[in-house]
Amino acid sequence: MDNLSQYIDWFRHSSSYINAHRKKVFVVLLTGETIAHENFSHIVHDITLLHSLGVKLVLVHGARPQINAALSGAGQELRYHKGLRITDTDSLQIIKQTIGAMAIDIEAQFSMGLANSPMHGADIKVSRGNFITARPLGIIEGVDYALTGVVRKVNAEAILQHLDKNSIVLVSNLGYSPTGEVFNLSAEDVATEVAMAMQAEKLILFVPQRGVMGKDGQLISTLSPVQADLLLKELAQDESVARNITLESLSAAVKASNKNVHRCHLISFADNGALIQELFTREGNGTLVSKDNFEWLRQATINDVGGILELIAPLEAAGILVHRSRELLEAEIDYFKVIEMEGMIIACAAIYPLDEESGEIACIAIHKNYQESGRGDHLMRALEKEARKQGLTKVIVLTTQTAHWFMERGFEPIAISDLPAKKQQMYNYQRKSKAFIKTLR
Ligand SMILES: CC(C)(COP(=O)(O)OP(=O)(O)OC[C@H]1O[C@@H](n2cnc3c(N)ncnc32)[C@H](O)[C@@H]1OP(=O)(O)O)[C@@H](O)C(=O)NCCC(=O)NCCS
């Protein structure tokens, strides 16, 4: 009875998670080790359950141990450089056969529907296709990786079309080039790029351990991308196989989190039910890598001057931003907004009032590791809101290398002679910046 009431209680409480996950895109990495494990059939059941609850699923599968076994079976040497396989024409033949057979087996597992099994009535469609464009990795330190490639592009739209038709999409670690060649890719690379291209809600990575384990042997249940990156450097010293799979997954999680994949989960492939516990309970089961609560946009203070100087120094050196001394920044700090991530300033921007109706947007800079993830847009919206609050109706910007970025955000070119008088007097004719204006609505 006790068990039954616990079960009912858990089931009721899971409804908020069911609502939150419905219609969201989850990308799941199934490494070759995951597929080979005896728990894989349970993972298939749990993935089926997610699909039944309306989650849009993209499964990316790898095949590392299976490929190793097939190559060794064919008497071929396993060639690696810096942990990455070197793929020649002969081994690619065997890799294609191995991956093709694995994809068919995975499809078969999702096609089961025996009565008295969790798959009964699921009626799942699995779609596959040429969603991944690849390019050769090339020659590194004199070593030619030949047919080992990296992801060049993901056809997110085509994947979405299949998801919208209620299919599960299965992607392998092979990619195709516009020249018609096939490239062997790392499944972690494919999963990360797919999650980023689809702006997935979650990237789920199955690992041999419960998640990421700290030096004390305890599970680390949450990490920000910055913490995860630091930990990666520490753990990289350890050579054990189990750790390496976890490290590759952790590195994929850091990359995806920094590019707007909301949550990345590392969970055990050996632990029956780990996926369900991670997604439907507050405590979770593995390690969550997420920027949630770790990053905030706020008004700058005098204490941020050092961080801003550090952020803008390389951009000043490249001539993208005009030089600002520490004294000037201290005097003008009230015009600045910053994005702080765990004590580090990763972005800044300023709005200077020019006259009664206009202000100037200046010194907008995002740290290079965090660019192209919407932070520039986020800052622009905050500056425009600030301008409106001050009663301004127009904002101008002068730029040498970022004209199109501003134009795509509603700015229009104007002549220097049309700038507000104060700005015209200060215009630096040597920099030859272009001027743009935006009317605030
Ligand atoms: C320009 C900058 C502020 C944009 O911020 P961000 O957070 O990286 O960018 P967002 O995520 O908001 O926008 C990304 C888009 O901007 C585009 N973009 C980035 N830099 C660009 C540039 N210099 N010119 C035109 N477009 C640019 C990207 O290609 C991307 O386009 P897509 O979505 O079509 O692929 C940032 O890249 C930066 O700090 N650059 C260096 C400093 C600089 O140029 N400051 C402006 C001085 S006036």
Can you give keywords for this protein?
441 residues; alpha/beta; Carbamate kinase; Aminopeptidase; 8-stranded mixed β-sheet; 25 strands; binds coenzyme A
Brief account:
With 441 residues, the chain is an alpha/beta fold. A hairpin with a 2-residue loop joins strand 20 and strand 21 (344-353). Helix 5 packs across helix 6, helix 8 packs parallel to helix 10 (241-258) and helix 9 (225-235) runs antiparallel to helix 10.
Describe this structure in words.
The chain is an alpha/beta fold and 441 residues long. Helix 5 (64-73) packs across helix 6, helix 8 runs parallel beside helix 10 and helix 9 packs antiparallel against helix 10 (241-258). It folds into 2 domains: 2-290, Carbamate kinase (3-Layer(aba) Sandwich), CATH 3.40.1160; 295-439, Gcn5-related N-acetyltransferase (GNAT) (Aminopeptidase), CATH 3.40.630. The chain starts with a helix and ends with a strand. The strands form 7 sheets. It has an 8-stranded mixed sheet, sandwiched between helices. It contains 16 helices and 25 strands. Strand 11 and strand 12 form a beta hairpin. Residues 315, 320-321, 364-366, 371-377, 399, 401-402, 404-405 line the site of coenzyme A.
